[in-house]
Amino acid sequence: MIRTWQIDSVTDAARARIATARVAAAHGVSALDRTRLAAALSGRLRQCLTKGGIWRLTLEPDAAEGLLHAVVEPAPDTDSAGEGPWRTSVPCPEPGDGTGVAGVPDDGELFAEALLGADEDTALVLGKLAEQEDLVAFHREELHQTNQGVLALHAELDAAGRAQREAFAAERAAREEAERARRRLRFLADASAELTASLNHEEIVRRLPRLLVPEYARSVDVWLFDGEGERAPGSPPVAHPAAAVVAARTGRPQYAADHPGGLPGVDDQPPSALDPLRPLLCVPLSARRAPLGVVTLSPPGERWDPDDAVMLIELFRRASTAIDNARRFEHNRDIAETLQRALLTELPVTPGLRLAARYLPATYGLNIGGDWYDAFLQPDGALITVVGDVTGHGLHAAVMMSQLRTALRAYAVDGSSPGRLLTRLHRFLHHLQPDLYATAVIARFHPAEASLTWAAAGHPPPVLRGPDGRVRILDDKPGAMLGIPLEQDIADHTVPLEPGSTLALYTDGLVERRAQGIDPGIGRLADALGAFPARELERDLNGAADRILPPLLSDSERDDDVCLLLCHLAGAL
To answer: What is the pLDDT of residue 45?
Structure first.
């Protein structure tokens, strides 16, 4: 019977040798021949396994010749298929013929049996080793896969760490940029509030360098035009950078330096010939009607941050509006003050009665134009003195004041009393300007009468100083404000008037304070008037008027006009 084995590993070779030994024993091959066959077969299989590939072992018994043939050849369809077969043969007697004498094996047979037994043990060990090798290979592959997973995990963790660090850096950069943006907005808001708080354009110009140096600029120069776009009259000629001239002509910001500025909305220019090493940013100050000037500033460091430059340009735009508003306010205030002073009366000269008047326009805000004083003679020789205050301020109030003044003089021609004059003014104002009101106090002196007749309409009461220095506040019931929607007949009041007496008529700007009201101010005026020596009032009434004002106005914000009219009845010293 022909036997065949496929061999491609050491284990297969060991098993094939064992199987060959058993087949040879079954066919009666002696132990020594079996050993020789196994040794030769082992050598050949070792060579085959060294070459690699799959080999086939064939055992074929030949009963006719009494031989057992062993053939080793490459298996079909392998890389070693072209190599020739290896052959060997051993004697193959009948089974049972290989024993020694009397059934006892000789030493050679014992040695051969021992070798075959060892070969079988080796085959078993090799089988176990092969299993262990497979197990080790499995675990090695598993460990390799684990290592690959650990490496991949480390790579993912490293990538996640980098991404987290990048996210933290981006968040920190965004937070810093947001903080810088908040700081710019806060500065812009605070600076704008400070610039618009003043109505004096020169003060606004002085504030600009204080706001910008040193955080946003190293130096600031403001080139301010007058109304016609030229330098202010009387100011010395000043050399300005060419970029400032270009900014004034084009109305666009200019950057003069030896490198491009890259600033949004800013044109680049060559460096200034006045200072080639210093970058300059020239921003025009533009108003609705005409250019106001140019601000030239140098950076606090090497150059400006683009966002800082945008913020500075916006600040100068707001400064332009503030300067333009201040100039318009100053212009209107000057017109109103000029009109107001032009309409104030030149005090008449009356025998036995001296007059002194003072008018101070408001120094804060456009609050001029509503206060006035007047003094004139009636046809019967009586002297009418009046102090009034029109609600509202500015040109409109000045115009209305002039109309009331003219109407009062017209009504006084027929010799009407103060109360009658105020009643007619009330009706006139209510008819002419229903939404405009006024207050007034009128005092009438008649040379043939030793008395004073007066009437008030919503106005602070007159203060009368007697020749002995005692002061009386004439606060008898006054009428309501002029022009209110109310029918009223304002009453006259009469008090005795002694020679040497002094009457003070005034507006609320002299005595009223927001935190205290008007009564304490009237008391202070009464005290100041009573403190004057009689001789001083008799000889220098104008000086007395000048000395009354400073202590009374020391705590005033001067946000309203001030009128004071002193009337002194001459007496024997």
So the answer is: 86
Written as one letter, the residue type at 306 is P
Asked if 3 and 18 touch (Cβ cutoff 8 Å), the reply is no
Asked whether residue 96 carries a pLDDT value surpassing 80, the answer given is no
Q: How far apart are CA 453 and CA 444, in angstroms?
A: 5
Is 120 buried (19+), middle (13-18) or exposed (0-12) by CB count in 10 A?
middle
Q: Positive or negative, the Cα torsion across 15, 20, 21, 22?
A: positive
Query: Which of these ranges, 99-103, 111-115, 234-238, 281-285, has the smallest mean pLDDT?
Result: 99-103
pLDDT tens digits, residue range 337-377? 676 666 667 889 888 899 999 988 776 555 555 788 999 99
Q: Which residues face 566 on adjacent strands?
A: 356, 504
CB 358 within 8 A of CB 563: yes
Residues 285 and 316: beta-carbon distance below 8 Å = yes
Q: What is the chain's Cα-based Rg?
A: 62
The upper half-sphere exposure of residue 121, i.e. CA atoms within 13 Å in the direction of its Cβ, equals 6
Q: What is the pTM of this model?
A: 0.53
Buried b (16+ CB within 10 A) or exposed e, 429-464: bbeebeebbbbbbbbbbeeeeeebbbbbbbbbbbbb
Question: At 144, phi and psi to the nearest 5?
Answer: -60, -45
